[in-house]
Specification:
Elements (H helix, E strand, L loop, with lengths): L1 H13 L7 E4 L5 E4 L8 E3 L9 E4 L5 E4 L5 E5 L8 H6 L14 H45 L17 H16 L1
Antiparallel strand pairs: 1-2, 2-3, 4-5, 5-6
């Protein structure tokens, strides 16, 4: 199951889907980050990159988190409820209520996991389809850019020729007069 979570995070990273991380403070004041505070999930130092070293860590609320050598949560122990004082006890309803126990067989757990995996795989397939569409559009855009870069910058300027029937001396005289006017 742990490999599944790691692979899913790798797919998210490749597809640039952000992984939402939560943070908590340890009793010593340092910060840790995690995707989910559950067994099998990785837990990191404040930099969100470096996994915590193997050991037991106590969160600010008293929750003990055991981390294995791979930086994955291996056990979580919630703090015990604070004892209720006698004054508060009289206010609390002491009538016991039946607790419904829900137990799942291994087969039920496997079925639920298979359903969850199927849903996730369908989502991955949809993302892969969208990714391939984006890749195709990118290829088309690259082809258009390449075609555009090969095209001439402007249309060719037509050559202008002076018809034979114009008086060349008159044009030459006009050009000379303009040059003389500029010099002054």
């Amino acid at each position: 199951m742990t490999n599944y979570r790691l692979k899913l995070n790798q797919v998210r990273e490749i597809l640039e889907i952000p992984v939402k991380l939560e943070s908590a403070m340890l009793e010593d004041g340092s910060i840790v980050t995690y995707e989910s505070l559950e067994i099998g999930y990785p837990i990191f130092q404040e930099d969100n990159v470096t996994p915590l070293a193997e050991g037991t860590y106590v969160l600010e609320d008293g929750t003990k988190v055991e981390v294995d050598e791979n930086g994955l949560i291996s056990d979580i122990v919630k703090p015990e409820e604070a004892p209720v004082e006698e004054a508060q006890m009289s206010k609390v309803d002491t009538e016991e209520k039946p607790v419904e126990e829900v137990t799942l067989s291994n087969d039920d757990i496997i079925v639920k996991l298979q359903e969850n995996i199927k849903t996730i795989m369908e989502s991955i397939v949809l993302l892969a389809d969208e990714l391939s569409t984006v890749k195709e559009q990118l290829k088309l855009a690259e082809q258009k850019v390449e075609e555009f870069s090969k095209a001439p910058a402007t249309k060719k300027i037509p050559k202008v020729s002076i018809p034979d029937n114009l008086d060349n001396d008159r044009i030459t005289n006009t050009i000379e007069a303009i040059k003389q006017a500029r010099k002054k």
